[in-house]
Amino acid sequence: MNHSADKQEPRPFGWRRAVMSILVIVLLLAGSAVGFNFLSSLKKSAGKTNPEPRRIPVSVETLARTEFREKLKAYGRARSLVDAQLANEVAGRVVWISKNLESGQVIAKNDILLKIDPSAFLIAEDAAAARREQAAAELKREQADVAGVSRRLALTRAEWKVSRHELDRVKGLVAQGTSPQSDLDVQRRLTTALERSVVALEADLETRRLQLPVRTAALKLAETDFAARLLDLSLCEVKSLYNATVVERLVQLGERLAVGTKLVHITDPSLIEVAVSMPASIWGQISQGTNVHLSRSSGDGSSWDVAISRVAPVIMAAERSFFIYVVLDGDGAAPPPAAGDFLEATILGREFKNAHVLPRTALLGDTVYVAVGDGGKGMATAHARRVVISHTLPDRVIIEKGLEDGEKVIIDNLEEIAHKSKVRIINKEDGQ
To answer: Total structural domains in the chain?
Structure first.
């Protein structure tokens, strides 16, 4: 057998497989070309349509003339008008503290809060009392001496007067020769002695009278010193000056205190003042007596209506603001806010009649956009309008001219809008 000839014989049907493969490839290429042309035709067809442009969602406000009252809003913090840290006025050791001298306890006017050891002050009081009595006794003795000298002077003057008359009589008798010269000499010596006594008593009386103001001043000084010792003794009992609530006790039993040591922090929660910061732009628009509505910024429903008690006379240059003050004294239905409470104040300001009023968000400079319906429900086109503004308020503007009643003014999304932009009104009351 010839095995090599058998191996070289070609396989049957091999050429058919090659032809089939070529046909499949050709068919795949043709199908791809047809599909590509079909998709391209679809894309061209879609590109020829004009789709609806994206409409910007906006809120509008239908314009109508109205009466508008400006509401000024500001904020302030409450503080107690009666808030103090009591201090001692005498030095010493704390020997007693009231059980009410704890945080939150209520104390009444003249309640004794604590006591300082009075021992040293009792001794000082006794010494001052002794000095006062001594000064009083010395004054009385001086007054008695003045009175005694005055009486002796009066008697001596009377004797001197009699002696002078007697001297004149004796002179006459001696001149007549009925009395000896020796009687005249005796009478002269007696009269001269009485005159010297009068002069001496007058000098003594004047000296003692000059001592009376000195003794009186010494007594006054002693009485003042005694009163000071009594005051020091009374200050050993520290009392409350008013009705209040204890915030914090600052000393302990047995502690030795220097003068001026802080003892207790007290406050009166029923008498609250609120300082409200107002912008300088409204200076002169509000005054004492203007009503203010206060509410907690937390929104818990608490509110108070009070009158302005005073207005600060100057504007703070750095902050461009000034303060108004209102006082809540606990006489209302609701208790006053606590010291430290942050409050919102609302004050009615200027009144505008028959005015076009818009929120400030509706303006870009002096331009507003009016939504004009263009067929669909809530669909509209924005038209720019130039307006004249008469007043600019914190959150509103008063339009003088440029708009008409019934026009729908766009009040938001202005940064996305231009003249003739397509918009969609989304607030129900004006867009549907």
So the answer is: 4
